[in-house]
Design brief:
CATH architecture of the largest domain: 3-Layer(aba) Sandwich
Oligomer: single chain
CATH class of the largest domain: Alpha Beta
CATH topology of the largest domain: Rossmann fold
Number of domains: 2
Strand content: 25-35%
Distance between the termini: 42 Å
Strand order of the largest sheet: 1-16-17-15-14-11-12-13
Shape: globular
Largest sheet: 8 strands, mixed
Helix content: 25-40%
Number of helices: 9
CATH superfamily of the largest domain: Vaccinia Virus protein VP39
Number of strands: 17
Length: 394
């Protein structure tokens, strides 16, 4: 286990009301130790020792913060004691000082705009969320306003121009989400300034916009990326499922692997292609495809595609039995599973066990989320034998 960074010099002043850093009162060394024990207890049937890679920084490490506009017109996070109430967090220790300054301005400005908070229960109102995203490489900063309706165009434009004039943000995005669910997403209506970010990991520049997923702790994602690509043997055919903007696919293609990436998000695939071309990669060495993973796998299996290594970096909900069956038909020798949800990971290993015999090598965890119970776990799964199972039930 690598040495943890120095402890925080002070606790967050919002700790009693905000649940963003629930374990901040615990020493960081104990946080890391607790995470390691949790992983080993949860996966004890499959692994014995898991190496832990500690966080590089304990504050200002996040590149994204989603601020809710609560019924009382407070912009902030949800209360630790009442999820229907918001709390202001002007001194949040998760985001950079520049992001804090932008948040403080918007927090004071929002009520004066007269924008009504969106109500999930009543399905009325205007402003849902304000999302601040920043690059830890260039210090560029984006702010997205997610609204329930498409009106107030002149007010939104005025605010955007004000933010640019004050240099509080480099790009402003107005997103419309008319659905009744509580989602931090939407259709982009209008953009001002420079509406994209550039993050450099291990010397590779990744461009992405407000609709793309990117790991929230870039400096630790850099270590995670390097670890994953080093697990892939030379000159393999690699399938990267849930590939995002090419975090693993692009460096693997640069190493000479033949890589195919699959992702549901159209914007992420668009930027994955742009990122690869910007690095001079030839279309013969990679392909990125938009699609629902189970459906795409079905097409690939019918086309008799084969892959040596399959990288899995799914959402928190994990995989499914259907996905395991379909990817095993591609005859991989190796799965590299990157998981942010230990319970889902354990369940997925139990499902894989129904279809194949395997062993796990080099288990390693990366603390991308200090002061929380969350951790990113990487398993190098070697397939030894595929069991007999029905070919039907795609």
């Amino acid at each position: 286990m690598k040495s943890p960074p120095s402890e925080l010099t002070s606790l967050c002043p919002h700790l009693d009301v905000c649940n963003g850093c629930p374990t901040m009162r615990v020493s960081y060394a104990d946080q890391v130790s607790a995470k390691q024990k949790t992983i080993q207890n949860t996966l004890q049937y499959y692994v014995e020792i898991v190496e832990m890679v500690s966080a590089e920084s304990l504050s200002f490490y996040r590149n994204r913060a989603d601020f809710w506009y609560d019924p009382a017109q407070k912009l902030g996070f949800r209360s630790k004691n009442d999820r229907f109430e918001g709390v202001s967090v002007p001194s949040c220790q998760l985001v950079s000082p520049r992001a804090q300054k932008l948040y403080q301005f918007l927090q004071s400005r929002a009520p004066a705009l007269g924008w009504q908070p969106y109500s999930v229960m009543e399905q009325t109102g205007y402003l849902r969320y304000v999302v601040i995203r920043e690059s830890k490489s260039t210090r560029g900063l984006l702010v997205s306003f997610i609204t329930f309706t498409r009106d107030k165009e002149s007010e939104m434009e005025g605010l955007a121009n004000e933010l640019l004039a004050l240099k509080l943000a480099d790009g402003i995005i107005w997103m419309h989400h008319p659905g009744f669910n509580d989602s931090v997403d939407g259709e982009i209506i209008q953009e001002w300034g420079i509406p994209l970010l550039v993050e450099t990991l291990n010397g590779i520049a990744f461009n992405y916009n407000a609709k793309c997923f990117f790991q929230t702790n870039p400096r630790m994602a850099e270590k995670l990326q390097q670890y994953v690509i080093d697990l892939v043997p030379e000159k393999n055919a690699v399938l990267d499922l849930y590939c995002g903007v090419g975090l693993f696919s692009i460096p693997l293609a640069m190493r000479g692997h033949l890589v195919k990436g699959i992702e549901m998000g159209k914007e992420s695939i668009l930027y994955a292609r742009k990122n690869a071309h910007a690095l001079g990669l030839n279309d013969d060495s990679f392909s990125f495809e938009v699609g629902d993973v189970p459906k795409v796998l079905q097409v690939m299996e019918k086309a008799n595609e084969k892959y040596d290594t399959i990288i899995l970096d799914p959402p928190r909900s994990g995989l499914s039995k259907k996905i395991w069956r379909r990817i095993l038909r591609l005859q991989p020798k190796q799965f590299i599973y990157v998981s942010c949800n230990l319970d889902a990971l354990k369940r997925d290993l139990e499902w894989l066990e129904e279809y194949a015999e395997f062993k796990i090598e080099n288990p390693c965890a990366f603390d991308l989320f200090p002061h929380t119970t969350h951790v990113e776990t990487v398993l190098n799964i070697k397939i030894e034998k595929v069991k007999e199972y029905p070919k039907g039930g795609f």
